[in-house]
Design the sequence.
């Protein structure tokens, strides 16, 4: 059992499982964020208030945060180990799509991590720690939607988010397929389906997140 936490294979397995867990969360997060485009901020504020006050969700929030930290930690450890074990690059490079995303997986992870830190400070810290949310909506809830709209009415913020989300898409593109491969899902019939679903998931989720700042900037 201890080998799971100490061996390279064990670390890869845990990182993959944590990655799939985080991937599933992104769907929920996107669904809530899209509500800000529905009816102003009313639906979004209701969903955000529920997520912020429900005790089960609060526990899940801690688990999610720890999952992200562990996923990042294992990724850094494995990347450093790989770089140390291969100080000299291969003479013959593989130019396949898979190897391209795999080669820059660590770099995209760094950009995504920096983006998430800034994103958490921009919204989660301001709302729950600093309590600098603009005000209260008509339902007596914290107007978190107003905070989102205010941020995405600033051009450089929108541009920054769009670029960061592209890097997130690149990370997801390879990460989705790699995770299933690591946990042992390798079948001549199912593997191509999983890869196709991973591409579809990446395109839809990335596009869904990217459209929110653009719509707010040009319409709100």
Sequence:
């Amino acid at each position: 059992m201890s080998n799971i936490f100490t061996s390279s294979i064990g670390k890869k397995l845990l990182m993959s499982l944590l990655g799939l867990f985080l991937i599933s969360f992104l769907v929920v997060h996107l669904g809530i964020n899209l509500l800000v485009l529905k009816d102003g901020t009313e639906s979004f504020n209701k969903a955000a208030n529920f997520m912020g006050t429900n005790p089960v969700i609060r526990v899940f929030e801690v688990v999610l945060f720890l999952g992200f930290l562990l996923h990042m930690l294992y990724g850094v450890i494995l990347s450093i180990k790989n770089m140390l074990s291969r100080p000299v690059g291969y003479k013959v490079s593989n130019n396949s799509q898979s190897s391209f995303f795999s080669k820059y997986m660590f770099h995209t992870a760094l950009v995504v991590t920096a983006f998430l830190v800034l994103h958490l400070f921009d919204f989660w810290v301001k709302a729950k720690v600093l309590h600098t949310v603009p005000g209260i909506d008509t339902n007596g809830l914290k107007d978190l939607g107003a905070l989102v709209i205010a941020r995405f009415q600033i051009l450089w913020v929108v541009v920054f988010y769009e670029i960061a989300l592209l890097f997130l898409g690149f990370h997801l593109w390879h990460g989705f397929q790699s995770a299933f491969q690591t946990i042992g899902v390798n079948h001549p019939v199912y593997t191509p389906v999983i890869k196709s679903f991973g591409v579809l998931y990446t395109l839809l989720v990335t596009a869904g997140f990217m459209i929110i700042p653009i719509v707010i900037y040009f319409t709100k």
Observations:
- The chain has nine helices and no strands.
- The longest helix spans residues 55-85.
- Residues 88-98 have pLDDT under 50 and may be disordered.
- The two ends are 53 Å apart (CA to CA).
